């Protein structure tokens, strides 16, 4: 489809006089603005090859095509724009914001990643808007946690900058915490910002730091739900470990009375059973041990380990389903094939039903 669109655009460009390629609509968007919005890198390249100054044209809100690409998360278009016109990253809109600001306000993390990779000047990364806010200020004030942490991983980003109100990114979180409840992710970002300030802003005059206890007292009431989640995951993982461990000593088809080996050990289905049962048991054991240490640092646990615990629990459940299907096939199929096939069909459809009901949410922690 993109190739077809590019072909049509090329034909139109050949038939359009050069002075009309830059025509705009009622909002003063030109063709490159729309190509950037649709993330069509080939069309972006075609337009720039014909009229490179389109990259520097602004619409009614003084947004360049790069601003539009950042707003819509059009990463391929952004790369092409920056490849041919790297200085377009310096352009700002009516709010004094560059593409970094726009990517953060629109919540486009992938766009921010591309900008950090392809835009090198430090002053652009730390550019302040009309309110004196750097991209890091905006990420902190808008609770764009992932974007803020991504910025802090880049050594060019300066956490010591103060906006016009004399606030740093860290103090903006504290200011908002005075009127709003903080969640675990905001607490983690606050601790990270405080750590970066301590190491990089020793000679800077920054706003006073709030105490951990004062912020903790304002945290949102998710602790009860958090405790319930940890307890549920631990219980499920423990049950899976118990069942899979028991299945190890009650092998499908039983053991030989002479040498103690499994009677069906030579069958492919039995080998699949052993592997899937081992995966289920070991995955659940890892989950149990990770969740035992969950209380040492709940903030870090929620961000780093809870997702892995969730994924390993899904893996253990899927492995248990495979174990069930292979065990039934080994013991039932030799005498009655259709019940074995029915069980396999039900087992295969179980994950599909879960995803049909929950969609992609099944892959993420319900927090």
UniProtKB/TrEMBL annotation:
Keywords: ANK repeat, Membrane, Repeat, Transmembrane, Transmembrane helix. It comes from the Eukaryota. It is a multi-pass membrane protein. The keyword DNA damage does not apply. Residues 227-330 form the PGG domain. It is found in: Membrane. The chain crosses the membrane at residues 225-249, 269-292, 312-332, 338-358. SUPFAM superfamilies: Ankyrin repeat. ANK repeats lie at residues 27-59. InterPro entries: Ankyrin_rpt (IPR002110), Ankyrin_rpt-contain_sf (IPR036770), PGG_dom (IPR026961). GO terms for cellular component: plasma membrane. This is PGG domain-containing protein. It comes from Aegilops tauschii subsp. strangulata.
């Amino acid at each position: 489809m993109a190739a077809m669109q590019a072909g049509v655009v090329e034909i139109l460009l050949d038939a359009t006089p050069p002075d009309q390629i830059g025509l705009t609509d009622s909002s003063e968007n030109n063709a490159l603005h729309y190509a950037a919005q649709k993330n069509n890198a080939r069309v972006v390249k075609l337009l720039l090859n014909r009229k490179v100054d389109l990259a520097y044209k602004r619409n009614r809100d003084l947004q360049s095509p790069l601003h539009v690409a950042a707003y819509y998360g059009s990463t391929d278009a952004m790369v092409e724009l920056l490849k041919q016109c790297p200085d377009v990253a310096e352009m700002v809109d009516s709010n004094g914001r560059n593409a970094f600001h726009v990517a953060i306000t629109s919540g486009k993390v992938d766009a921010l990643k591309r900008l950090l990779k392809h835009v090198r000047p430090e002053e652009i990364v730390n550019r302040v808007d009309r309110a004196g806010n750097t991209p890091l200020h905006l990420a902190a004030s808008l609770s764009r946690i992932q974007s803020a942490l991504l910025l802090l991983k880049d050594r060019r980003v300066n956490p010591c900058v103060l906006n016009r109100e004399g606030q740093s990114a860290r103090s903006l979180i504290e200011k908002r915490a005075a009127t709003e409840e903080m969640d675990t992710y905001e607490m983690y970002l606050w601790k990270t910002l405080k750590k970066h300030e301590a190491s990089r802003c020793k000679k800077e005059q920054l706003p006073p730091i709030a105490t951990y206890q004062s912020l903790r007292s304002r945290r949102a009431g998710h602790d009860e739900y958090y405790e319930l989640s940890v307890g549920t995951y631990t219980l499920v993982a423990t049950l899976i470990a118990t069942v899979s461990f028991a299945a190890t000593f009650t092998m499908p088809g039983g053991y030989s009375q002479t040498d103690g080996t499994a009677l069906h050990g030579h069958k492919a289905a039995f080998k699949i059973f052993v592997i899937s049962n081992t995966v289920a048991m070991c995955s659940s054991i890892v989950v149990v041990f990770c969740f035992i240490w969950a209380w040492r640092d709940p903030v870090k646990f929620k961000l780093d380990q809870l997702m892995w615990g969730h994924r390993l629990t899904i893996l253990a459940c899927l492995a248990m389903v495979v174990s069930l299907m292979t065990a039934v096939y080994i013991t039932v199929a030799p005498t009655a094939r259709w019940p074995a096939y029915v069980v396999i069909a039900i087992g295969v459809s179980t994950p599909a039903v879960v995803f049909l009901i929950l969609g992609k949410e099944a892959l993420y922690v319900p927090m």
